[in-house]
Amino acid sequence: MFETALxxxxxxxxxASGLRVITARNPVHGxxxxxxxxxxxxxxxxxxxxxxxxxxxxxxxxxxxxVLFLFVVMMLDINLERVREGFWRNLPLALVVxxxxxxxxxxxxxxxxxxxxPRPVPLDYSxxxxxxxxxxxxxxxxxxxxxxxxxxxxIAAISLTLRRRKDTRAQDPSIQVLAKKSERVRLVxxxxxxx
Length: 195
What we know:
- It is a single chain.
- Among the domains are: 1-78, Four Helix Bundle (Hemerythrin (Met), subunit A), CATH 1.20.120; 122-161.
- Helix content is 75%, strand content 0%.
- It has helices spanning 2-23, 27-48, 51-75, 80-114, 127-137, 140-161, 173-177, 181-184.
- It contains 8 helices and no strands.
């Protein structure tokens, strides 16, 4: 009973926040509603027992992608009138995509209700452990290749954006080592002040 009520609460908030994503006039508000939708989707996945997908959604999308998106939206000066002009022009394509998505969701639900039943799993089954076992045995080479490609992309992004600024003060250790004892302190003789 509690899980059913929690499902309906999470689903209602997910639908409401999803509608606010596309109807919000401010892009920052739309992005924040998308973060709320992601959190509710993660809660639904937790109810379904897909812990890895829930954590991956929160960490990857909310923690990385949406923060980057919010940063870009807030840093750019977006002309909202030009963004709204394309709404009616893109509406027919959006309706076609919405009908296709609705058909797919009805198909998935109809298959779930009238079609095949899911495979029974033991009580101590962990989808995270099963995913890790498959990922690190059958797909180890592809996983390591993707990790190396991401590492190269991170290093390339850092090296492309790294610029030397003129006003930074940096120390050169090779010059500091060449300093002599006599050059470090300079005694200055000053006459005493008298009134």
